[in-house]
Input
Amino acid sequence: MPKFLRNLFETNQIVRIVGIVLAMSLIWQTVKVVQRNYSLQQQVDRLRDEVAILELQNQRLKFDIDYFKTDEYLELAARQEFDKRAPGERVLALSQEDAVDQPLPEDRANSPTKSKYQQNFEQWLYFLFKIEPS
Output
């Protein structure tokens, strides 16, 4: 047998080759397991987030159910559905032409010296009583 093959198949060389193959196999399996664990952890995190969202939605729905059982909701629903009003309450009905937005006079629309609150107050006065601003 040639000297090259004899050196190749000596016990030391065979043990080294088997050791290298085993080490590579272990490294490859470890990488596969780590990759699988990472993807499974991502799935677990996603499912936990979904569970948290569903729990919040469930809690919100419970609050809605509790609200729908209250007298305040029943009163509001009756007012909206049947146009009811409370004793001493007045109902304001606007005609279609009053409901249309009308532009403000130019001198009121662009008054830079007045604060927003003052402009808002004057607009309410104009809307309610047709009082022109000073």
Summary: Residues 3-91 form one domain. The helical segments are 3-8, 11-68, 71-82, 96-99, 106-109, 116-129. The mean pLDDT is 83. The longest helix spans residues 11-68.
